[in-house]
Design brief:
It comes from Streptomyces javensis. Keywords: DNA-binding, Transcription, Transcription regulation. The chain has 363 residues and is an alpha/beta fold. It has helices spanning 21-33, 42-51, 54-62, 86-95, 98-110, 119-124, 126-139, 141-152, 154-198, 200-205, 276-287, 289-298, 305-312, 316-328, 347-362; strands at residues 2-6, 15-17, 212-214, 219-222, 227-231, 237-242, 250-252, 259-264, 303-304, 332-337, 340-345. 33% of the residues are buried.
């Protein structure tokens, strides 16, 4: 499984890197809608929840299918330029042709990569609209309600969404954007410079530990549940850094619109993110009772291989082999002092392992 970006026809002019306040707000709303996916943000989420007015919290819940798992394409930039003010992004959404609004919104409300009726039929054919509402109801009652509102009054739903987004800006996002915008600009500037220096394929691969470059740098594949090959050039690619999107790498591929890749603007980029192979190695290392017992002896004061062997009643070679497996999995740290090598458990790695499991799965 995976999403492949085909770069054979990509030119520098096809790739645009910049910020989007609206996309960043959607990432924040996604955390609020699915907090179990973002345990690292629990403190931020709780603080925000206590500050929200009940009416805004209720509307946030009712509209949440738009920024849950699939994330509605409406809330990403639809055209150049990037780095527009939040108010300008909302005005563009307000002026979007109604049929285009319905087409993008209908897929977001369904929240799943499954065919939906064309926007024209949702606006003019009652039977197609009814089938679409039933399609959404099968996913959830909340999605069914939102689908009904969309086909019954698309203008009304758009006005409701715009009012909600403006209320979010007043309640919390304006201050949040001020705190993250410089960091996002730094991330965008770094990516632009890296593309010029290292090339597009290498930079795209560096945005996720799951990425694989193939065919001489003409393709980059990300390990995702969806399966697709997306051609870049002449169709544009928008690269959007985000503080709130981690651990996800979001790829949007709606026809007739630019491809969007929203990536985590984290300190150190992806250096601290696990690949699936690394996660499997750590889980496998801990699955052995013998290695788990050895870990208990490594907790605390650093210890040599010989002393470990004496404690466990094993040969030095056997302990060395086990230590190597744990070290390869990143679960122990070894340091030479004089003629001795001392080992200790990497407790920070173990403390993070639960969060890393979730982050690796959710990416």
């Amino acid at each position: 499984m995976g999403i492949t970006l085909n770069l054979q026809r990509a030119r520098p002019a096809d790739v645009h890197v910049g910020r989007s306040p609206l996309a960043e707000l959607m990432s924040a709303l996604h955390i609020m809608a699915e907090p179990d996916h973002h345990p690292e943000a629990q403190r931020w989420t709780r603080r925000l929840e206590t500050a929200l007015a009940p009416s805004l919290a209720h509307e946030m819940s009712a509209l949440s299918p738009l920024w849950a798992r699939l994330r509605c394409r409406l809330l990403f930039p639809l055209e150049l330029p990037l780095d527009q003010p939040f108010e300008d992004e909302l005005r563009h959404l307000e002026k979007l042709p109604l049929e285009e609004f319905v087409g993008l919104c209908s897929q977001g409300v369904l929240g799943f990569r499954e065919a939906v009726p064309p926007a024209g039929s949702l606006l003019t054919d009652p039977e197609a609209a009814e089938r679409y509402v039933e399609q959404c109801e099968r996913r959830s009652f909340r999605r069914g309600e939102l689908a009904h509102d969309l086909v019954a009054s698309p203008e009304g739903l758009r006005d409701r969404l715009l009012c909600f987004l403006e209320s979010c800006a007043e309640a919390f996002f304006a201050s949040e954007w001020r705190s993250v915008r410089d960091r996002l600009e730094s991330a965008a500037a770094r990516v632009r410079a890296d593309i010029r220096r290292r090339g597009l394929a290498e930079v795209l691969a560096g945005l996720s530990p799951t990425a694989v470059v193939s065919r001489g740098g003409s393709r980059v594949r990300y390990d995702k549940l969806a399966v697709a090959e997306i051609e870049i050039g002449p169709r544009p690619l928008f690269l959007l850094p985000s503080v709130h999107v981690w651990p996800h790498l979001t790829v949007k591929d709606e026809e007739c619109h630019p491809v969007v890749l929203q990536f985590a603007a984290r300190e150190g980029d992806t250096a601290d993110q696990l690949t699936q192979a690394e996660l499997r190695a750590r889980m496998s290392a801990l699955a052995s009772l013998g290695r788990m017992e050895l870990c208990r002896h490594l907790l605390g004061e650093p210890i040599t291989t010989t002393e470990l062997a004496q404690r466990l009643g094993l040969a030095d070679t056997q302990v060395s082999r086990t230590l190597r497996q744990l070290r390869d999995a990143g679960l122990i740290e070894s340091e030479r002092e004089g003629k001795y090598v001392y080992h200790r458990l990497a407790t920070n790695t173990l403390l993070r392992l639960g969060q890393d499991v979730l982050a690796t799965i959710m990416r």
